Structure prediction request, 370 residues.
Amino acid sequence: MSTSQLRVLVLICSNRPGALGPTIGRWLVDAAAPQATRLGAELVPVTIDLPFFDEEQSPSSGVYRNEHTRRWSAIVDAADGFVAVTPEYNYGMPATLKNALDYLNAEWAWKPIGFVSYGHTSAGTRAVQHAKQVVTTLRMVPLGGTVAIRIGDSVQDGRLRPDPTRDAAGVALLDELARLAHALRPMRERARAGAVPGSPAGPLPGSYARRLTPDDAPEVTVLQRCCWVDEAVLNDRLDIPALHETLDDVRGWLADWHTTGIWRDGRLLGMVRTRADGTDLHLGRLAVVPDLRGRGLGRWLLRTAAEAAGPDMRRIVLVTGARSTHNLALYRSEGYQLAPFPGPDGTISLARDLPAGPACAQPCSTRSPR
Prediction:
């Protein structure tokens, strides 16, 4: 299961004056808040307020001309799941919900959606049946459980009457949504990788590589803690930054370094980061999950990083623990040799020359890699 917090949008689907939707949305957020905390989920109310679809190109193109479309795309893309709080109009869902769904395509895919409906005779259940036909076409996964509120029984003076049974149903809805959101995360991650032009296949069947972003900080933090414990034991030192960095620390360097990660089934299997400094390419944080070591992932990452070096790069430099015999053997087998500058205490600096390109305008950097 991922360590990332789930972001669940509570979509308020009626925005007409005096609509009951905002009241019901507030009830759901308040009733489910304790369980959301336990599940590591963030409930975000969003009132749907979009003009009728006005883009020139199909949503499947992902090309958006209007600012309101780009804003809506970013909101939906960042979510892991949804709860639609919807009334029923004439045996169907309101035009606001259908319009909001029609604006986008890939942003909805592989995300669960639950429904809290309200109405009179049917308590809004026919709107839910109508909406389920649409969301499945967008590759969303509707929940089996719903919450249906009959207005005549539940509303007095514009307010919801207290109802422990309804509260329990709201919590159960969130439980089911969270389970599905976690189960579908590998599908979302795979789709995300496919949306990045040039994302290569990884070294293992079913794996793939993409650049890591600050959003990947939770997975990177877990990978680092798993990998650098061994380094701490081998080198008899605990002052290894990778063991102590906070999520904010990791987000910070993910924004500054070019970091490639290997993924499979939503799991981060390995990574390496690089950053140019003059004509040197600094390489670091080469890591592979302990259970998949010896399968060629580290070597693949090392070579992928070297192949991505720009034409102005003359040398790749890195550091590793002085007692990290396995790491040293890997680096030496890939052509890395002792560098002409020392590493930090307890480490060894290594360097590898890159094929010559245009002559250096200035002497190559001799700074120690970071």
In short: The chain has two domains: 6-194, 208-353.
